[in-house]
Specification:
The complex is a heterodimer of chains A (231) and B (495). By secondary structure, chain A is of the alpha/beta class. Chain A contains eight helices and ten strands. Chain A has one domain: Rossmann fold. In chain A, strand 1 and strand 2 form a beta hairpin. In chain B, a hairpin with a 6-residue loop joins strand 6 and strand 7. In chain B, helix 2 crosses helix 16, helix 3 packs across helix 12 and helix 14 runs parallel beside helix 18. The two termini of chain B are 32 Å apart. The chains are: A alpha/beta (231), B alpha+beta (495). The interface between A and B is medium-sized, with 34 and 29 residues.
Chain lengths: 231, 495
């Protein structure tokens, strides 16, 4: 662990509901070091997912700053934020969020297509396909490449989502309750996979979870309540 | 730059959603209809213009005062270097009064009633011509060939060509007299007094050539059928003018066809001397003048539009100088100006048809919009996913824009292909359908057409194709913009 790869500085986030401002994040300071695993724990409504979205540049903060590798990034343009997200941030969601029309392999490959032109992708399609296949084999889906999400179990879908998050070789992976929609046995397998990959690649992992046991496996636990970090 | 995921996903979405076929078929149908209908209309309009052109002369000097002398005009006009020939024309409204066969004695008897059931047969525009000069300025010879052809095609039996213009004696040709034996036979057939021997008979009835449409309606097929021509005119001074009616007996001397339906249906060609006599300008009267209402002019071939315009100005000035001082200005009109109202009406019809077809295209574009909008609504969560894994708003919007573009391009290609094939096979299909069911998609007889005129214009087809694609892109832009502007977090949490 060294310098923070991802940092929130006095981040606030308000949502407007009719004429009312609803504060969700009330000044969050948080740092995630390279190669560090951090668990965000808290009750529903504590602001965990909102913080994850702000740190992942999906949602700009109302106030405060977000830094990536020491650079302020919350003030970038939408296009620049998208490019940064693609290159350095991987997302894993509770509900997998796969494209139903695509096979497992295509869902993973999609991550490679985000910032490359048609011509560039055509030229490197074989390498991209090989990388995606290797990742799917690594998550145990080598024999399910051509299956669509509807033909996969919940655990398998989450593995595809993990493979997709890793294809662009990000520095940090943001996981929003990655086991929240899985049974305990499947969840254990997915969690083992996440930590194995984290160790192998030295990634920074920020996990939003309700699961205390999962949180205990992380280097650090950050507890949130009513939009603030309490410990 | 378009990110690779945009066309990839666009294609996936299209292939997995059959409802997009609606858009493809909508565009295809619209383009097919535009290509086919417009090619028929273009062919139809082209045919009409050709026919109108064949019935008109290069230039027509018209709007002349009622007492205009042709000789003076001709002398002036032929001094112009671009004028090749001129011919006098005298137009007057009149009526054909058939001599019907009596029921009792099978002899001709004059009808005392206008045949209102066949008004078009009875009323006519009498066009007095000087045959020798007319041949030099118009397509008279071709009209006389085409007339019998039309009747032969209609009745599948040969129809006789008019002999009056082959007459060698200038005086007989000027009066368009039929051969002596033909008139003698007609007289005998009608029971009229005549010489016992045909060789002693001399034709006397001025010949009249009718449009083939009129011949068909009147069912006059024998040469030298006699009938009366009637007209009315005001004679005397301008203050004390009195209405006079005139009648003269003439003989059916052949039929003509220019292809210009209005001309063929309304015009009756007759000797200009006969018409002048009817209007009180008998050539035997020393005080009579060779009146004309128009002068047909043939100009040098190959004149450019600018040269023709200059020629018209010069001729107008030459003619005006000959006319009585203070006369209203005469007009020199080219063939399009001579038929301006008719040609404008046809062009307007084509414009209206194109507008209707454009509305069909709009409907197809609306179908594309509806299907794409529905797709965006159904794919909100996908839009969130794409944003989360690094898709730019522009790339996300491009997914749907390219979807619309693909639908438009495929639909347009299919539409152009089927449209061109349909146009090429139109006459065969029309014939086959008529043979099988008795139905005709395009009733050719209604327009006196030998075949359905069909003219494929590559530039128009390209315009339609580009227009269809551009229109589809415009409507696809709306849902694609909506997708591009969607908030990623809201999209991800969409149920």
């Amino acid at each position: 662990m060294s310098s923070p790869v991802l940092q929130a500085v006095a981040v606030k986030k308000h949502y407007r509901l009719a004429k009312h401002e609803i504060p969700v994040l009330r000044g969050i300071d948080l740092s995630v070091q390279a190669g560090e695993t951090v668990a965000l724990l808290g009750a529903s409504g504590a602001g965990k997912s909102t913080l994850l979205h702000v740190l992942g540049l999906l949602d700009p903060p109302t106030a405060g700053e977000v830094h990536f590798d020491g650079q302020r990034v919350d003030n970038l343009t939408i296009g620049q934020r998208a490019a940064l997200r693609h290159r350095h941030v991987g997302f894993v969601f509770q509900f997998y969020h796969l494209i139903p029309e695509l096979t497992a392999l295509q869902n993973v490959l999609l991550a490679r297509m985000m910032t490359t032109s048609v011509w560039q992708f055509w030229r490197q399609r074989k390498q991209a396909k090989a990388a995606a296949t290797a990742l799917l084999e690594q998550v145990g889906l080598g024999d399910r490449l051509r299956h669509r999400p509807s033909e996969l179990s919940g655990g398998e879908r989450q593995r595809v989502a993990i493979a997709r998050a890793l294809l662009a070789e990000p520095k940090v992976v943001l996981a929003d309750e990655p086991t929240g929609n899985l049974d305990s046995t499947t969840a254990r397998g997915v969690v083992d996979l996440i930590f194995e990959i984290q160790r192998q690649r030295g990634l920074a992992f920020l996990l939003v979870t309700h699961d205390e046991r999962l949180a205990q496996r992380c280097h650090r636990i950050v507890r949130m309540q009513d939009g603030v970090v309490v410990s | 730059m378009i990110a690779a995921f945009s066309p990839f996903l666009a294609l996936r979405y299209l292939l997995t959603r059959r409802i997009n076929l609606l858009g493809v078929f909508g565009v295809m149908f619209a383009v097919w209809a535009i290509v086919l209908v417009d090619s028929v209309f273009t062919g139809f309009v082209g045919q009409i213009r050709d026919d109108v052109r064949s019935s008109a002369t290069d230039l027509m000097l018209t709007d002349l005062p009622h007492d205009t002398s042709y000789l003076a005009l001709r002398t002036a006009l032929v001094t112009d270097e671009d004028v090749v020939a001129t011919a006098p024309r005298l137009r007057h409204h009149g009526m054909l009064q058939p001599l019907r066969r009596g029921r009792q004695d099978n002899r001709y008897q004059t009808s005392s009633q206008v045949d209102f059931d066949h008004t078009v047969n009875g009323f006519a525009t009498m066009l007095g011509i000087e045959p020798a000069e007319e041949e030099a300025v118009s397509g008279l010879r071709q009209w006389l060939v085409r007339g019998p052809e039309e009747l032969t095609r209609l009745y599948t039996s040969d129809f006789w060509p008019s002999p009056v213009f082959d007459e060698r004696a200038p005086e007989r040709k000027a009066r368009m007299l039929l051969p002596n034996d033909a008139e003698w036979t007609a007289r005998r057939r009608a029971g009229m007094p005549t010489e016992a021997d045909s060789s002693r008979h001399r034709s006397d009835w001025p010949g009249v050539v009718l449009g083939w449409q009129r011949v068909r309606r009147m069912r006059w097929f024998e040469p030298a059928e006699a009938f009366d021509l009637l007209c009315a005119s005001f004679q005397g001074g301008e203050v004390n003018a009195t209405l006079h009616t005139h009648s003269t007996r003439v003989a059916f001397a052949g039929c003509f066809a220019t292809g210009h339906r209005t001309f063929d249906e309304t015009m009756v060609l007759m000797p200009i001397t006969t018409l002048r006599s009817m209007l009180g300008q008998d050539a035997k009267d020393p005080s009579s003048i060779d009146i004309v209402t128009d002068v047909a002019v043939r100009v040098r071939a190959g004149l450019s539009s600018a040269q023709l315009a200059n020629c018209k100005r010069r001729l107008q000035a030459l003619a005006q100088a000959v006319l009585r001082p203070g006369s209203a200005p005469c007009l020199v009109a080219d063939w399009e100006e001579q038929n301006q109202v008719f040609l404008s009406a046809v062009a307007h019809e084509q414009g209206m048809m194109q507008f209707v077809l454009f509305v069909v295209m709009l409907v197809a574009a609306f179908v594309i919009y509806a299907t794409l909008h529905m797709m965006v609504v159904q794919k909100v969560r996908d839009i969130g996913i794409l944003a989360a894994i690094g898709g730019s708003p522009r790339g996300i919007g491009a997914v749907f824009l390219l979807g619309g573009l693909t639908v438009a391009v495929v639909g347009t290609l299919l539409g152009v292909g089927t449209g061109v094939l349909s146009a090429l096979a139109l006459n065969d299909v029309n014939d086959w359908l008529h043979a099988q069911t008795g139905l005709e998609l395009f009733p050719r007889r209604l327009f006196d057409l030998r075949e359905v005129p069909c003219r494929l214009a590559p530039s128009w087809i390209a315009t339609v194709a580009i227009g269809a694609v551009v229109l589809a892109l415009v409507v696809a832009f709306i849902p694609s913009r909506k997708a591009a502007r969607m908030h990623p977090v809201e999209a991800l949490s969409h149920e």
